[in-house]
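Please decode residue identities from the backbone states below.
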């Protein structure tokens, strides 16, 4: 099973938050950049089924959205471990996994505290799965290939500047547009091993101009 190393949204966005505050000036025409990171978790429902997971870094200018993302899907199967001649315990093991590294371009529109977006692009995919030979001996097969990634997102976030709250409880600092988001993501990849997945998304950053 290939391990997916996700972005670190907190570290990246804390840096951008500091830069945005440092460059703020009295000119009212200038505002924060629209930049945010997210992590998503869900299930593949077409192509490769199983657990889906990933993270992305997003930057918007006008209504154009640039996204760098890492996605993964892993399917599982049940096997049985014999503990004693009379006791056997079932367990799950990874059957097949896909790791995807992608760059996407899309369109994003914002209405108060909600946004809708869709994107497509290009990706490098890595596939790993287990197979058996004619002697019933298991071995692992790996391959890599180019794909066409896509995604649709709906996010909800704060519509006005407010003090940032740690764990949504403890207020810190001055009112800011920097904050969290929650929503749904439909993502997938069109390739020689296509898939589609639906999941929840949790984000952190500047989701619009405040």
């Amino acid at each position: 099973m290939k391990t997916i190393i996700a972005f670190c949204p907190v570290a990246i966005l804390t840096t951008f938050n500091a830069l945005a505050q440092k460059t703020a000036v009295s000119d009212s025409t200038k505002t924060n950049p629209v930049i945010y990171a997210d992590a998503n978790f869900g299930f593949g429902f077409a192509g490769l089924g199983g657990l889906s997971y990933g993270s992305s870094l997003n930057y918007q200018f006008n209504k154009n959205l640039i996204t760098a993302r890492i996605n993964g899907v892993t399917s599982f199967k049940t096997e049985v471990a014999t503990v004693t001649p009379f006791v056997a315990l079932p367990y799950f093991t990874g059957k097949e996994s896909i790791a995807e590294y992608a760059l996407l371009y899309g369109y994003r529109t914002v209405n108060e505290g909600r946004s809708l977006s869709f994107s497509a692009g290009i990706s490098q995919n890595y596939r790993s799965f287990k197979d058996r030979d004619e002697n019933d001996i298991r071995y692992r097969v790996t391959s890599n290939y180019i794909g066409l990634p896509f995604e649709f997102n709906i996010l909800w976030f704060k519509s006005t500047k407010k003090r940032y709250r740690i764990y949504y409880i403890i207020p810190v600092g001055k009112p800011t547009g920097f904050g969290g988001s929650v929503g749904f993501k439909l993502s997938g990849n069109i390739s020689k091993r296509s898939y589609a997945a639906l999941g929840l998304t949790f984000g952190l950053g500047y989701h619009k101009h405040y």
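Observation: The two ends are 43 Å apart (CA to CA).
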